Amino acid sequence: MPGFEIFGDEERTEVGHVLDTGVLFRYGFDDLRDGVWKARTFEAEFSKRLGAAYCHLCSSGTAALGIAMAACGIGAGDEVIVPTFTFIATIEGVLQAGAVPVFADIDETLCLDPESVRSRITGRTRAVVPVHMCGSMARIDELASLCAESGLRLIEDTAQAVGASFRGQSLGTFGDMGCYSFDPVKTITCGEGGAVVTDDEDLYHRAEQYADHGHDHVGSDRGAEGHPILGTNHRISELGAAVGLAQLRKLDWILETQRKNKDRLREAFASCGEVTFREIPDPEGDSATFLSVFAPDEDTARAWTRALADAHVPGCFYWYENNWHYPRGWEHLKAMRTPGLSPVTLLDPPPDFSAMDIERSDRIMSRTISMLVKLSWTDAELGDLQDRIRKALEG
Ligand SMILES: *Cc1c(COP(=O)(O)O)cnc(C)c1O
């Protein structure tokens, strides 16, 4: 999935426009900037590409989640349902709002199981955050209906699935807000960056205000702007936005390449009769950043992980043991080791993340191996990889 593989002349050119003006800041300095507005241009092109009415580009995917929580009015003591399999940033976004992450199980899509979500809804639940993990989609239609019928906000964490879609509609546009990341290992990168998208004008204004100290961005004198709300600073610089703009224009090519390369990996894994594949609700909409497979049981998954490593097959992840993407490894969360007192610890009773019932997720994750799909593989390298995968799984 990595945009870092394709940094080239297009990125240099876009950054050059910003360096030529010296205006590295996305707001103000109108007469010095020579018509160069990289963040604004990114927002216009990105929302068009996704089919969303509004986009706000910001400093990271984690910031995007915090902005979406704030815009949706989620705060102290509210409960937000999140999946067990995600990057820890999803949890951080909820905690920063002062809200409580409530874990629901995943199913064979490796994303939120709508039935598990339903079982976790309480009188304090305000939102559901599906995470479209590893480039493919959650059962987003079912989750959207569930949220609509239960009066809950739907905030999609689309950090890992930019460009993916479900039945022709872009992921990130099914809920109230969609969040994206453009960090160094995502499909497209700004160096560091993120975005929120929405069709709701009020949510959009809350978002852009919150992300810039509450500025209302009305008029052309920044110093004279109003401040309808208290906010914070999650701004992206024009330099990062310029890199992202060049990368965004390569997105369709990236997706096409990833899909082709993923098919080759899939062929190789399918040669082993014991392998089954992650369920993908709409395979055509897969952004194909990863191939994820299931072993018949945990012991076999561990054996395959070792065999793939021994055969020098790069980019294989056994998430069950990984300390960034699954609660088993989140010792800091279980102990609530925060630098200062976290607002949620003042609740009565405070949430207890050391005693989560996620047995159903364990059964799936303990059998799951994912392999990163790269863009830069040549045909010969792919052939060689296929051979090594087949041999590793035969053993
Ligand atoms: C990367 C990622 C984020 C956070 O993005 P940053 O830009 O690194 O802050 C959030 N959620 C998921 C699922 C991610 O993979």
Describe the protein's architecture and organization.
With 395 residues, the protein is an alpha/beta fold. Helix content is 36%, strand content 13%. It is built from 13 helices and 13 strands. The chain has helices at 9-21, 38-50, 61-71, 89-96, 114-120, 140-150, 201-210, 238-248, 251-270, 298-310, 331-334, 359-365, 379-394; strands spanning 54-58, 79-83, 100-104, 125-128, 153-157, 165-166, 169-170, 177-181, 194-198, 276-277, 290-294, 316-317, 368-372. The strands form 3 sheets. It has a 7-stranded mixed beta sheet with strand order 1-9-8-5-4-2-3, with helices on both faces. The chain is globular, with a radius of gyration of 21 Å.
Roughly how many Å apart are the termini? 29 Å
Strand portion: 5-15%
Q: How many strands, which pairing sense, and closed or not: the largest β-sheet?
A: 7 strands, mixed
**What number of domains?**
2
Query: Which regions contain 5 or more consecutive residues with pLDDT less than 50?
Result: none
Which key phrases capture this entry?
single chain; 395 residues; alpha/beta; Aspartate Aminotransferase, domain 2; Aspartate Aminotransferase, domain 1; 7-stranded mixed sheet; 4-stranded antiparallel sheet; 13 helices; binds pyridoxal-5'-phosphate
Q: Care to give the gist of this entry?
A:
The chain has 395 residues and is an alpha/beta fold. The chain is 36% helix and 13% strand. The chain folds into 2 domains: 3-250, Type I PLP-dependent aspartate aminotransferase-like (Major domain) (Aspartate Aminotransferase, domain 2); 252-394, Aspartate Aminotransferase, domain 1 (Alpha-Beta Complex), CATH 3.90.1150.10.
